[in-house]
Amino acid sequence: MLTNRDATVGSRASLKHWLGLLVLMLPVLLVTIDNTILGFALPKIAEALAPNASQQLWMVDAYSLVLAGLLVTMGSIGDRVGHRRLLLLGGLGFAVVSVLTALSTTPGQLIGGRALMGIFGAMLMPSTLALIGTLFEDREQRRVAVAVWATCLTVGSALGPLIGGVLLQFFSWSSIFLLAVPVLVPLLIFGPFLLPESAKDLAGRVDLQSVMLSMVALTGIVYAIKHLAGVGAEPVAAAALLVGLVAGVAFVRRQLRLAVPLLDLSLLRNATFTGAILVNLLSLALLVGFVFFATQSLQIILGMAPLAASLALVPGQILAIVVGMAIVPIAQRVPAHRLVPVLLGFAGAAFLLVAVAGGGLTTLVVAFALLNIGVAAIASVSTDLVLSAAPPAKAGAASAISETAYEVGVVFGTTVLGGLLAAGYRSALVLPDSLTGEQAWLSAETLAGAHVVAAGIGETGNAVMVAAGLAFGSAVVQVGWLAVTLTALTMAVAWRSLKRGNGIESVA
Hints:
Blueprint: H1 15-49, H2 53-81, H3 83-102, H4 107-135, H5 139-170, H6 175-178, H7 180-194, H8 208-230, H9 235-257, H10 271-301, H11 306-312, H12 314-331, H13 336-357, H14 361-389, H15 395-428, H16 437-445, H17 447-455, H18 460-500
Helix pairs in contact: 1-2, 1-4, 1-5, 1-7, 1-10, 2-3, 2-4, 2-8, 2-15, 3-4, 3-7, 4-5, 4-15, 5-10, 5-11, 5-12, 5-14, 8-9, 8-15, 10-13, 10-14, 10-15, 10-18, 12-14, 13-14, 13-18, 15-18, 16-17, 17-18
């Protein structure tokens, strides 16, 4: 991709620099794997810890919500203390908290552990992209390194189900958290030798008021959506939404007033930048939302073992790796306002297939492959567009906004799509009259809950699972149509915003 900056070509990277990139990709893969691997383990976690529908969604979102809220803050801290130091501290903390989370015995403990993992995960992500700029001075080499980084974002999310399936086939659900230890140990051992420390900027300070406003805004809005999906329209949901919106408005106004804002919102005036951010956010939301319902369909509705279910998604994961790198030369020749809508079309086609054909095995395999073609390519293209559209002096702020949008997309996928899935399932469920009140409540809470009830009531259990399967299938179709609509709208936004370009030579 061509940009209007990076006019000079720096020194070429050595083998040590490329090995450093390899080490940097370990935390990138881990943080993104953690976004989807838990969804694959939810059926087993539901059996062991008996969470309700709202707790299940919080198990997934507590991590991404905290991560999104702290990415910009940690990026600013890394600028002052050094990104290598922050990366290594985050890696150590992430590994320790992951082990503690694996020992959880209640839903609350697991949710709390996921939130703490989000704090340390926020130390990892901004540092990886910042250190790529330190490792690679040459423009073309840096472009390849950024493409590798962006591909790992998608590949990590896509690998979550596969790795989760393998681990759950042979070990308990806690093994998905222990994965952090072997992944991060090489970073902690080789990072100090292979990664140079970034330049430190001691100017300015971290604005704690902005940090709190951003967290309150995200938490309030997400909680409101979850409560609406899990319980229904109640005063507490309206209050949470109001608090979140007020905090969000206050955050935006404060950023526009500060001389050194926590989040440089002036970048959003650039049409290319804003369009790329929105596209990246939606594409990750679609991927995470798909994994959320596909893993439950494969394991509970279709009765597949975790390993077999994960292997069914391997074609899509392979395509994510291939397409993420193959798109780079294509993006150099095709204008962004034409290429990005086409890539979004692949994602839309995936959900259209689900909406029309339902959630059968073949449908899910093909749909996941189509989705990964679009999302993997979009991750590479949009990341480069974001960095290209921002002035060199604001590259760090641009990276922080891009990474924040990525995590907000993950939250959006589980909160909105997952929440609507839960609401649609509950409204369409028709259970046998012979169930007790507690059994009916548990079955209506989640698909996993219905599975647990069915396993313990003999012949009536078959009727429960048939009803649950029909209701879940109906909800999946509804989510599919919603995703198709959102994708179509985003295609139009991408065409318009990326075509304007705002004076940026986005892609040519």
